[in-house]
Amino acid sequence: MPRVRVLVIEDDERLADVVARGLADAGHEVAVRRTGTEGLDAALAGGFDAIVLDWMLPGRDGPAVCRDLRARGNATPVLMLTARHDVADRVAGLDAGADDYLTKPFALDELLARLRVFARRTVGPQRVVVGELVIDRERRTVARGDVAIEVTAREFDLLALLAERVGRVVTRLQILDEVWDGETDLRSNAIDVHVAKLRAKVDRPFGRQSIETVRGIGFRMRDDADA
Predict the structure, then answer these.
(1) By the 8 A CB rule, do 83 and 62 touch?
(2) Which run of H or E residues covers position 66?
């Protein structure tokens, strides 16, 4: 999943802190607002890729915030958090303009999974360019200069993740969460195998060393100028 900017509108300080910390640990930027009015103002100011919105808020409740956003033409995806389990209440939240809902209590992993769905729909450039390396998300193709490079679907997703965060360390946990959807155990060497295959395809034939290992943490892609 590409790095996204998430606005969390939640008046429960403990829950907001847990969600914000979990999102930050997953590599995302987070802003927190405690009231419906403050959250609406922040959302309307723009710059967010997704909004995590609590139903019960002081000043202005979640559905009201969502209706105001949609009425003003703001289409930022909204994930509604609610303790309400009745179908009618959940329908009301969706009718207010929310894209999805999550009932409390919830697992942080599930919240991250819902946001990944948003990201696949709306976030991320169609082409990622790092020096001569060009990754086309729409066509799912890779090329270095004029040379097309064949990669598997998993290799493509891993390469795109590293390229989107060029110059920054991507941890093994982030790779497992975003490329493998958490399905592979951390003790597995699957990541190392795929990184080795990518190096053999996108680096070695071109005399490059753009994908480097950060020992004990993860991997980082450097620009061609530094590689």
Answers:
(1) no
(2) helix 62-71
